[in-house]
């Protein structure tokens, strides 16, 4: 039988010596006792080393060396690693998205929503409107455009701003900004006597409700394309104070400015602050003037910071006018391209491009950024991918890829691609309610549809009081078909070309 002897040492470790005695041999008559091949004196040091702390240190060192080797391999293949991480992130994001309805699927009939308020442009004194905005409370709407002449470089355009009650359509204020700007301009630049040509592109309420901002650019008649001025008109709803801020950029075309950086104004000090620039290889096509990521945030002292890319929950949108952080899924457009601008290259499956431009206020209302431009490609799951040669021909080889935000967007992309004609170029405006439950889609044919973000189904059609095409389209050449959601996501504001009006629709409670 066996006998086991245990001895302990001062360090608390156990040493076990086993002695085997009187063990019977197997019944096989040819069996012989086993001989020791390795001498005992050579085995004892090895066994002692296996139980020592030195062996643990060698094992730890081996693990560290392996990790360093793996890190070196990843760094050496950095481009492939980033591509892999992007694909993984896109795959994870897609898991939040349910399958959209098929094109052949019979969908429920969407609700038909008629306007709750209309402001005819002719009665409001506008020849065209370039921008609309809700007040932070949703009780008023602001309109920016021209009283005459929508072609700003003709010298005949006259700027106009009006504010209306969002429920009664009663006009609360009217402002002609041209004269205010001219007074400040000729005072600040006394050596310039040329005619000024204004382009009013954005009106926006500060989140602290104190200011309304008119954002514009302009040229002198003698320096179109060579010198650009950017400006900001600030006023309050009671017009108790009005300020005009101006900035000049010399020998740089406005398209180059928008393609490399943005303007940020410090309202408190009445000046612009330094902003980072990005390098764009081809600013004439699709480009961004800020690093493209899914989320942005306001930091201290007016810092506007791209956030690390993470998987964004489908409901996340955020308000750029007042929120500390928000996503790039602001009002924008999706463009489906099947041939390049010269017509020499084709990709019949279609390339989807997401383009957005927005103004953003810091939460305290001190800083405002004019003109953040973002462009990126969208790749729906299972959609054919263009090769690099095709992307180069389309000037898209440098565009980053964004994961699809939600089922509604995926559904919209599928339907747009199915109806897109070869070579045609029809950008479609898309915007989300701030609560993230609905997505609006407005086509160039003035068809406006609301989609459920969860199901991807079209749930409502925004109709007009008239189906007739507007007469005298040359006078009202500018029709912005984007949809502007109220802060509480209960109403939408848009231009309606058939009615030649600014229109508000109430969203039924069961949809929101």
Q: How would you characterize the overall build of this protein?
A:
Mean pLDDT is 78; it is low at 1-38, 49-54, 74-96 and 467-477. By secondary structure, this protein is of the alpha+beta class. The longest helix is centred in the N-terminal third of the chain and has 24 residues, at 53-76. Strands 3, 13, 14, 18, 19, 20, 21, 22, 23, 24 and 25 form an eleven-stranded mixed β-sheet that branches. It has a four-stranded antiparallel β-sheet with strand order 4-28-27-26. A four-stranded antiparallel β-sheet has the order 5-6-7-8, with no helix packed on it. A hairpin with a 5-residue loop joins strand 1 and strand 2 (14-20). 32% of the residues are buried. It starts with a strand and ends in a 6-residue tail after the last strand. The protein contains eight helices and 28 strands. It has helices spanning 40-50, 53-76, 78-94, 121-124, 177-188, 254-260, 388-393, 407-419, and strands at 2-8, 14-20, 111-113, 117-120, 128-134, 140-148, 158-165, 171-175, 196-205, 212-220, 227-235, 242-250, 263-266, 271-272, 295-298, 304-306, 325-327, 332-339, 346-361, 367-378, 401-402, 428-432, 438-442, 448-452, 458-462, 483-485, 491-496, 501-506.
**pLDDT averaged residue by residue:** 78
**Fraction of helical residues:** 10-25%
Structural class: alpha+beta
Total count of strands = 28
Oligomer: single chain
Number of helices: 8
| Main β sheet profile | 11 strands, mixed
Round the Cα radius of gyration to an integer and report it.
33 Å
List segments where confidence is low: pLDDT < 50 over at least 5 consecutive residues. 1-38, 49-54, 74-96, 467-477
General form? globular
For the terminal residues, how far apart are their CA atoms? 82 Å
Strand content: 25-35%
